[in-house]
Amino acid sequence: MRPAHDMLTPVTIEKSFDVDRIRTEFPILKQRVNGKPLAYLDNAATSQKPQVVIDAMNRYYLEENSNIHRGVHFLSDKATQSYEAARKKIQRFINAASHKEIIFVRGTTEAINLVAQSYGRKYFHAGDEMIISAMEHHSNIVPWQMICEEKGLTLRVIPMNDKGELFIDKFETMLNPKTKFVAVVHVSNALGTINPVQQIIEIAHRRGVPVIVDGAQAVPHMKVDVRDLDCDFYAFSAHKMYGPTGVGVLYGKQHLLEAMPPYQGGGDMIKSVTYAKTTYNDLPNKFEAGTPNIVGGVGLGATIDFMNTLDFEAATAHEHELLEYATEVLTTIKGLRIIGTAREKASVVSFVLEGIHPHDIGTILDDDGIAIRTGHHCAQPVMQCFGIPATARASFAMYNTKEEIDALVKGIYKVIEVFS
Length: 420
Description:
With 420 residues, this protein is α/β, with parallel strands linked by helices. The chain contains 14 helices and 17 strands.
């Protein structure tokens, strides 16, 4: 492991992908569940953590633990350097123009709420409109509903077809002089659809409308370049990309963040405080009130170190191969219907079995050590679009294998046998 103060040192990229070797990096994958090898296929909910991330977080508590920014002693300086080094590493990872554009938050949900409450309260007015899509996670619906209700906006929804693809032509016709904002998911957590966000951003920008992208499911599976996308805001969570829970990132263009009021008040987001007036701090501190999740930030930095050692294109290709294989073998099962069959997908297969509730599928699969997600996946409007209450969802990461998919198929046949 590299020392904390050397976190920006270039790393050697391994130009190959060996899934067996990758699996050795993740200690939890060695365990057995109910006497069976763990097949962890719930990565869209949260991913597992490599040993190097666990070690980095342990080392922080063992060697560096102190509050950051305000201390002049050795440990505070060391912790501050580790935390701020992580910010700069994130900047490079998503190709932001400045470390000032990287705001640490608790996760994607808080990032979206920050923009809704800060940008929305300043720039939204009664009679305005904003647009989201029909495949959004609740965290990219509810915050906008709240600010729209408060400010008197109309919330409009881009429709999608029965494959789970957005009607981009209809989106273009929805834009009008009243449209003030667009919020869209990059990769659907419920369907796996990869949306053409760059096209959506270009269309919106032609009308002068800013766009936030929910990238929670995208960053773990594809290279994201925020300057190439030209998005105004981009949000993602560490725990979806092999990092710790409770920490994430809001990227925002610097001129927009500078014009926005603080989201929360407290320590570290101020320059001076009197009873008469408070002067706010510069970016990024202005949006980071109070003691942050320091160890989470350090862990996210270690996660990016880990990901930078990989041949990311090879990892993505491996995941796509798993997706194609799972789709092929699952479609041969009588009574099984895949929900979400877009041409462009990433690492998610949601399905229903005729006459069997998804919760029963998940329970029986768990008996054989197979972990999937069942329910509405915090995307109830998506379920309503397809006329179903819930799905069973298998979601893949770079450490998954075809053998685990075979175990999933075998488990589904067991489910069918039990309920026949």
